[in-house]
From TrEMBL:
GO BP annotations listed: proton transmembrane transport
Entries under Pfam families matching the protein: CorC_HlyC, Na_H_Exchanger
UniProt keywords, alphabetically: Antiport, Cell membrane, Ion transport, Membrane, Transmembrane, Transmembrane helix, Transport
Protein's cellular compartments: Cell membrane
Transmembrane segments: 55-73, 85-111, 117-140, 161-181, 187-210, 222-241, 247-267, 274-292, 298-322, 334-356, 362-382
Membrane topology note: Multi-pass membrane protein
Name of this protein: Putative transmembrane cell volume regulation protein A
């Protein structure tokens, strides 16, 4: 009896993997493909009957723990610091506002009681980490660092708030009016305890993982298995003691990924493959659990609710949360648009179903349709929306064929293998810098020392030992010419500045105002680095009075090498008449007050 289960399960996974090639080719949201295969294989398709909500929730929770650990592991600490305040605001207050607004719409569209309507809002209140990370990273969208970091940190940290709201509202409904007052009294304390325990245990668990990996000697292939097993243990333990296991495993991944953990490259490759498997397993399971024939009666009102969530509830919550943080209109609009609902919303929809709530099946079906609508509407349009809003960072170099090989222990260098491609600078005669240590060239299947290889030829493999901070400089030498899809001047500004020049010269040249006196003795580079939190990446922007300063290039040491200048009114051709920033609101209020005094 078990062999048909193995056959069907592995066949569905294989079908998902093979279908991914078509999804990449035609730009389809891959997670929607996985979900659709599960739906097609279910009882309304091939006839596979699966209705165990508890096991589906278990599989989904385990898969989500793996995905969140990988999300944290792949998030750079600089990105987290830069986006922590706005992202945490979105992950807490933003989820609460979204849930409340969706609850209002659900109450009027479906006629649900208020608490059940708000429960539905909590179920679909958070963005999905798997969907967002896939579309932003695997999808190859290069965004401004602040926007990308905000979306990634928000999607990785907002699930605990949605889970907490869902559980509390469900307890309120099941407790009835008599016990509801006590549940409300425990709300604030319970949230603080869950988030506090989750964050503290996440940091402690992450540092314990790093320390254990340094001190315990294992066979190389066992390191990734041990680290991931420990992360899942942390997830389960924190949940048992009353904390948020999802937050804990994300924070542990963040700590481990930024602490130089032993076996980093092997663990990175292992997590990448296992995360794909977790996403396929989770979406296939949730696809099998649904019964599409039950969707027909509620399809139109559920789609209407999904549209309201996408076009009003999420944008309103994002705009209110980001007002204090100085985001531009286009940035706020894009963050509002990338509010994809995914597996988390379906998982939360299982909770009232498993708890025996009378309307549990209805809430689950509505949440499912909202997820499908979100993936269809937003999943197809992320890249066009980013391009239309002018947020895609133009490519600075063309494709690079490079493989990194990990050295034992915590070596200060990496062994990098480059393939020499057509029209790359090294093929056209550009010399390698002296700090690069080329040791081997493989040409036509024969290996030779670099000193005796002569001039590099196309398709040569060049092996060299390089410090990690200099790898991106070598990428430029081994890259093919960039094929720009966006006008360089439109994004980086029409004027190029020397960042070593004094800031006061820029202020005098353009008559800039509103620059605090403490910055007047700084260089342009120092001013920008201070405003960016100490580090800069290509595409970062800093407002300086009436102009924007844009990082064009960064040296291997992390210093700003070239700066572009753009006037504020040239932010982009697709600027929306929505999402006024806090600065624009203050200017508008001052103008209105000035007119009032004159009259």
């Amino acid at each position: 009896m078990i062999f048909p289960v193995f056959l069907i399960g592995s066949g569905l996974v294989l079908a998902s993997v093979m279908t991914s090639a078509l999804a990449f080719r035609y730009g389809a949201p891959l997670l929607l493909v996985f979900l659709s295969i599960g739906l097609l294989a279910g009882e309304d398709g091939l006839g596979i009957r699966y209705d165990d909500a508890n096991s589906a929730y278990l599989i989904g929770s385990l898969a989500l723990a793996v995905i969140l650990f990988d999300s944290g592991f792949d998030t750079k600490l600089r990105s987290f610091r830069q986006a922590a305040a706005p992202a945490v605001t979105l992950a807490t207050l933003g989820v609460l506002l979204t849930a409340a607004l969706v609850g209002v719409f659900a109450h009027f569209i479906f006629g649900l009681p208020r608490l059940e309507a708000f429960l539905l809002g909590a179920i679909v209140g958070s963005t999905d980490a798997a969907a967002v990370f896939f579309l932003l990273r695997v999808g190859g969208i290069t965004l401004r660092d602040q926007v990308r970091s905000t979306l990634e940190v928000e999607s990785g940290s907002n699930d605990p708030m949605a889970i907490f709201l869902t559980v509390v509202l469900l307890e309120l409904i099941l407790a009835g009016e008599a016990a509801a007052a006590k549940v409300w009294q425990d709300l604030a304390a319970g949230f603080a305890i869950q988030m506090g325990i989750g964050a503290v245990m996440g940091f402690a668990g992450g540092y314990a993982l790093v320390a254990a990996a340094k001190r315990i000697t294992l066979e190389g292939a066992l390191y990734p298995i041990g680290v991931l097993s420990a992360a899942v243990c942390l997830f389960g333990f924190v949940g048992m003691v009353g904390g948020s296991g999802f937050l804990a495993v994300y924070v542990a991944g963040l700590v481990a990924g930024n602490s130089g953990i032993t076996g980093y490259m092997g663990l990175r490759r292992f997590l990448e493959g296992l995360t794909w498997m977790a996403q396929i397993a989770m979406f296939l399971t949730l696809g099998l659990l649904a019964t599409p024939s039950q969707f027909l009666d509620i399809a139109l009102p559920a789609v209407a609710l999904a549209v309201a969530l996408t076009l009003f509830c999420r944008p309103m919550a994002v705009w209110l949360c980001l007002l204090p943080f100085g985001y531009q209109r286009n940035e706020t609009a894009f963050i509002a648009w990338v509010g994809l609902r995914g597996a988390v919303s379906i998982l939360l929809g299982i909770i009232p179903l498993a708890a025996g709530l009378p309307d549990g099946q209805l809430l689950f079906n509505i949440a499912y349709i909202i997820v499908l609508t979100s993936l269809l509407l937003q999943g197809w349009t992320i890249r066009p929306m980013a391009r239309w809003l002018g947020l895609i960072v133009p490519v600075r170099i063309g494709p690079v064929e490079r493989v990194g090989l990990e050295l034992p222990g915590r070596a200060d260098h990496e062994l990098i293998v480059y393939r020499v491609v057509r029209e790359s600078p090294v093929l056209l005669g550009e010399r390698l810098p002296r700090w690069a240590r080329p040791s081997l060239v493989v040409r036509d299947g024969r290996s030779m020392r670099y000193q005796y290889a002569g001039r590099l030829q196309e398709d040569d493999l060049v092996y060299m030992f390089v410090a990690p901070q200099y790898i991106h400089l070598l990428d430029r030498l081994f890259a093919s010419p960039a094929k720009l899809t966006v006008d360089d001047a439109d994004f980086f500004g029409k004027f190029v500045l020397d960042p070593r020049q004094p800031l006061i010269d820029l202020i005098n040249a353009y008559g800039l105002r509103s620059i605090p006196d403490r910055h007047l003795d700084q260089s342009i580079a120092d001013f920008m680095l201070q405003r960016l939190g100490g580090t800069a990446e290509v595409g970062d922007r800093v407002t300086c009075g009436e102009v924007d300063l844009i990082v064009r290039d960064v040296t291997g040491a992390g210093e700003i090498d070239r700066v572009g200048l753009s006037f504020a009114q040239e932010e982009g051709p697709s600027r929306l008449p929505l999402f006024l920033s806090g600065k624009e609101i203050r200017v508008w209020l001052r103008e209105r007050l000035a007119r009032g005094r004159k009259t």
